[in-house]
Design goal:
alpha+beta, globular, three-stranded antiparallel β-sheet, 10 strands, about 150 residues
């Protein structure tokens, strides 16, 4: 990584290099938000974020819990499973899903890759108003996945 940012949450340190043109929002901690220059969290159409959690139980249970959580807050909900992107951490369990929350007020799409590493669950998310916006920033999202690693736990 050429220019990493360190995400620190209690005893955990994760290093991530944001894609060119994205910067960490210093006002928000876990989830750690990345925005385009000049944008504010409250008004940005597209954000990327990393949420660090303890992995309590099997990885598949965490995936199912996330699916249930989305289903409770978003009706109707559609989940797609796109091709799995490459990540920096080899040998880790991972799963990428695209969640479409198609409700009338404030619809959104989340592209979410969960990575199990060292007893932690890293959720790396690209969130936007639409699938078109997700497509526009997908390469930036893939860059982040190739440049994120656990430093200390």
């Amino acid at each position: 990584m050429g220019n990493p940012v360190y995400l620190i949450d209690s005893t955990v340190i994760v290093a991530v290099e944001p894609p060119p043109g994205w910067a960490l929002d210093p006002a928000r901690k876990n989830p750690f938000f990345f925005l385009k220059p000049g944008e504010k969290y409250e008004s940005a159409r597209t954000v990327m974020y990393v949420r660090i959690e303890q992995l309590d139980g099997p990885f598949q249970s965490a995936v199912q819990k996330d699916e249930r959580s989305f289903a409770e807050s978003c009706q109707p909900l559609r989940i797609e499973e796109p091709a799995q992107p490459e990540i920096l951490e080899r040998g880790c369990e991972k799963k990428t899903q695209m969640f479409f929350c198609e409700r009338k007020q404030k619809p959104y799409v989340d592209l979410d890759t969960k990575i199990a590493i060292g007893g932690l669950l890293l959720n790396v998310v690209l969130s936007s108003d639409s699938a078109e916006e997700i497509s526009q920033y997908k390469k930036d999202y893939e860059f982040m996945l190739k440049n994120i690693t656990l430093v200390a736990h």
